[in-house]
Design goal:
By secondary structure, the protein is α/β, with parallel strands linked by helices. The chain has two domains: about 140 residues, Rossmann fold (3-Layer(aba) Sandwich); about 160 residues, 2-Layer Sandwich (Dihydrodipicolinate Reductase, domain 2). It contains nine helices and 14 strands. Strands 8-9-10-7-11-12-13-14 form an eight-stranded mixed β-sheet, with helices on one face. Strands 3-2-1-4-5-6 form a six-stranded parallel β-sheet, with helices on both faces.
Length: about 350
């Protein structure tokens, strides 16, 4: 592996936009013992100058020149969605490990091609599905798997907002749209909670407020025998935002936000059995009983390092120490397949 165990990985960043700069570059500034940005590329000279001042690094206006830089150990591909696979493969073939921004690919075929290239080059290909590290998601998964809520009947996940966009990410020609952008995060979490079942899909994609030609309203329902129904809403057309989480189970339920969760449950073993009674109810009312609820809550820890830092700490261990990759390309392929099926089922 590069540079010897213990020294910083030398990083190149392709694309200094919202993700390349605000997420990746700024995270590297907080991890100087693990990462050193040595080169960047962007079409905007002003952004290159900003990076040079922050990192004392080399700057290129062309991606092909960036990947020729032999000092780079790890390439962060934060270019437009359309180029993620192309740029990842080119970097790996020139000896770089790669972090690929979401969406990891625009089709399963593309994803498999990138995985094959990583295997051939013997390089780490890390999909940037950083939201698998989000503390609220990890807590929800823990609670669901604990069984305290009983059999999970339905999980509703909402990411609501009300806004217009008119940038490049609203255009099909660049692989834009809400499904590829934030949908790649929300549906990735949904697939983890759904499990290994093959989902039946209901899909509704609509253009609501966007100025481009892609969707900005996404409704996806996943269902399969033996799995919870998962209802995902991702929209830019909700003036009244719902909470991120609403979970129904046979012993209780959960609701909450990214910062706070509340759940309650019943221990049915302490309650009387209720066999079916075929006789008329007395006194002409619905069945009623006093429910003995137990409750709990969770708040996001104030000292949580953040999912970006957690992602890059784990990646350092993978590249430098041979630890297993926490988020594998193979696991993300299921999400890419789902995104592809959504587009096919409801083309804009």
């Amino acid at each position: 592996m590069a540079n010897g165990n213990g020294s910083p990985l030398r990083v190149g960043i392709a694309g200094l936009g919202r993700s390349g700069w605000n997420i990746h570059a700024k995270t590297f500034l907080t991890l100087p013992d693990h990462y050193q940005v040595v080169a960047v590329a962007d079409a905007d000279e002003g952004r290159i100058g900003e990076a040079k001042r922050a990192f004392d690094c080399r700057g290129y206006t062309d991606f092909d020149e960036l990947i020729k830089d032999q000092a780079i150990d790890l390439m962060v591909v934060a270019s437009p969605n359309l180029y993620h696979v192309e740029h990842s493969i080119a970097a790996m073939r020139l000896g770089k490990h790669v972090v690929c921004e979401k969406p990891f690919a625009l089709s399963v075929t593309e994803a498999e091609t990138a995985i094959d290239a990583a295997n051939e080059a013997g390089k780490v290909l890390a999909p940037f599905q950083n939201r698998r590290y989000e503390p609220h998601f990890l807590k929800v998964r823990e609670i669901m798997e604990s069984g305290v809520l009983g059999r999970i009947v339905q999980v509703r996940m909402a990411w609501h907002g009300f806004s217009r966009r008119w940038d490049w990410q609203t255009l099909q020609e660049f692989g834009g749209g809400l499904l590829n952008n934030n949908g790649a995060h929300l549906l990735d979490q949904a697939m983890v909670l759904f499990g290994d079942h093959e989902p039946e899909l209901f899909v509704d994609l609509q253009q609501a407020l966007t100025s481009g030609d892609t969707e900005d309203h996404v409704k996806v329902i996943l269902r399969a025998e033996g799995a919870p129904t998962i209802d995902v809403e991702l929209t830019s057309a909700s003036a009244y935002a719902a909470e991120r989480w609403h979970i129904m189970g046979t012993a209780g339920g959960l609701h909450g936000t990214m910062d706070k969760l509340d759940w309650k449950w019943i221990d049915w073993s302490t309650m009387p059995e209720r066999p079916v009674d075929r006789m008329p109810t007395q006194p002409r009312e619905y069945n009623r009983e006093d429910l003995e609820w137990k409750t709990s809550s969770w708040s996001k820890p104030e000292d949580h390092p953040g999912e970006y830092v957690m992602f890059y700490r784990d990646l350092y261990k993978t590249i430098k120490q041979g630890a297993d990759l926490y988020i594998t390309p193979a696991s993300v392929c299921r999400q890419i397949e789902l995104l592809e099926k959504c587009r096919q089922a409801c083309a804009i």
